Amino acid sequence: MRTGRDLELVHVSKRYGGTTAVDDVDHVFAGGSYVCLLGPSGCGKSSTLRMIAGHESITEGSVILEGQDVTGLAPAQRGTAMMFQNYALFPHLNVRDNVAFSLKMKGVDRATRHKRATEMLELVDMAHLPDRLPAQLSGGQQQRVALARALVTDPRVPCWTSRCRRWTRSCASACGPS
Ligand SMILES: Nc1ncnc2c1ncn2[C@@H]1O[C@H](COP(=O)(O)OP(=O)(O)OP(=O)(O)O)[C@@H](O)[C@H]1O
To answer: For residue 156, what are the domain limits?
Structure first.
């Protein structure tokens, strides 16, 4: 049921260069309702939220909040708020170098670092984006890189949050069988 407090996404799309992150979302969220966006990593949830909050420009479409078109308004003018994900990756290092960093600190040679980092990236399904900077990744992708970085030295006790669904030999020995 529509109320005067609805949030409307009108044919909203977001593209980052050649990547379509959000494709023609057209939906009315009832005012006062509590909504969860569920979907696989990289499907566009954060981009959608950032466009609603005004932290991301909209490629196509518009955002209507309580009947007002806020598409061109700055975040502070929208009356929205946002809590960000943060996985403490090194912002100036690409994905591969983030994962290999601790090996470098241990004096491991470059070829071995590269090979080991690639193995870890394959483990978390991130081997296709080794040259991206953290700012060019989705939140879940950043978290997977952070997980690869945590596992690259084969730690005795790897710890992570509930988003991780991948098990390695290290995980199994530390936490029991999956
Ligand atoms: N600044 C950017 N430059 C290029 N591609 C980007 C950028 N930000 C996000 N993407 C890509 O857009 C897609 C959607 O990203 P988004 O952050 O919206 O996903 P998500 O559903 O929130 O993912 P997750 O659950 O992993 O946090 C991903 O494929 C991501 O790699």
So the answer is: 95-168
Mutual angle of helices 95-105 and 110-123, in 10-degree steps: 130
Number of domains in the chain: 2
- Asked, for residue 35, whether it belongs to a domain, the answer is yes
Mutate to test the pocket of ligand 1, among 9, 12, 13, 19 (most ligand atoms within 8 A of CB): 19
3-class DSSP state for residue 85? Answer: coil
Q: What average pLDDT does range 147-160 have in this prediction?
A: 68
Which tens digits make up the pLDDT trace of 40-51?
Answer: 989 999 899 889
| pTM (whole model) above 0.90 | no
CA–CA separation, 138 and 135 (whole Å): 8
The residue contributing the CA closest to ligand 1 atom 23 is 42
Residue 64 has pLDDT above 50, yes or no: yes
Which of 137, 142, 163 has the most ligand 1 atoms within 8 A of CB, as the residue to mutate? Answer: 137
